[in-house]
């Protein structure tokens, strides 16, 4: 968790980008999987910027770009102690804008994918980034930060992305300010109302980028926001 997400060019996502200080839109993309290029908002010399980053962190000190270890997610509980994540946690924090993400829930012995979104269809997911410089080129890559699932979401998965509230964004993107590993922004709580619905199992194939596969197939479950 989180292993797939979607970006939908909708009014909600456009507003999120404006709130983040980005005067650009992201094109619609569905069933985005690790190692693909994704949009990353980060602080730059002249303000916030939107860059394309590989979704699978390659630390600056890594000898090569590889996938030996699962580096597309970073556990909030170990950000300060992990060799791979502790420096980005201090200096290279960013945000991945997304409309929804996908999680699989075991139902009747079968893994059923569920689409998770909110009323705005826009999440500001906490991320870390780094730049690897090797082979004569630079690679910007990132990872999504996860935390223990909120109680209401636990039946779907034991982990969930750290979704930043509007009041947490500035502090997270300000790399001159230290954030403690036990900061409340990592809390296991739903900061907005989440909307869950099962979708086609065909999205289990990461090559399936057909937006129609994201259409809901049954019951809609709503999980209320928590304080």
Tertiary shape: globular
Strand order of the largest sheet: 2-1-7-8-12-13
User: Segments where pLDDT lies below 50 for 5+ residues?
Assistant: none
Radius of gyration: 17 Å
Q: What is the CATH third-level topology name? A: hypothetical protein yedk fold
How many DSSP H or I helices? Answer: 3
Element order: H for helix, E for strand: EHEEEEHEEEEEEHEE
Distance between the termini: 23 Å
| Helical residue percent band | 10-25%
Q: Indicate the CATH architecture.
A: Alpha-Beta Complex
Structural class: mainly beta
Count of the domains: 1
Average residue pLDDT: 95
Question: Could you explain the architecture of this structure?
Answer:
The strands form 2 sheets. This protein has a 6-stranded antiparallel sheet, with no helix packed on it. It has a 5-stranded mixed β-barrel with strand order 3-4-10-9-6. The longest helix is centred in the first third of the chain and has 9 residues, at 11-19. It is built from 3 helices and 13 strands; from the N terminus they run E-H-E-E-E-E-H-E-E-E-E-E-E-H-E-E. It has 227 residues and is mainly beta. It has a single domain (5-223), classed as Alpha-Beta Complex (hypothetical protein yedk fold).
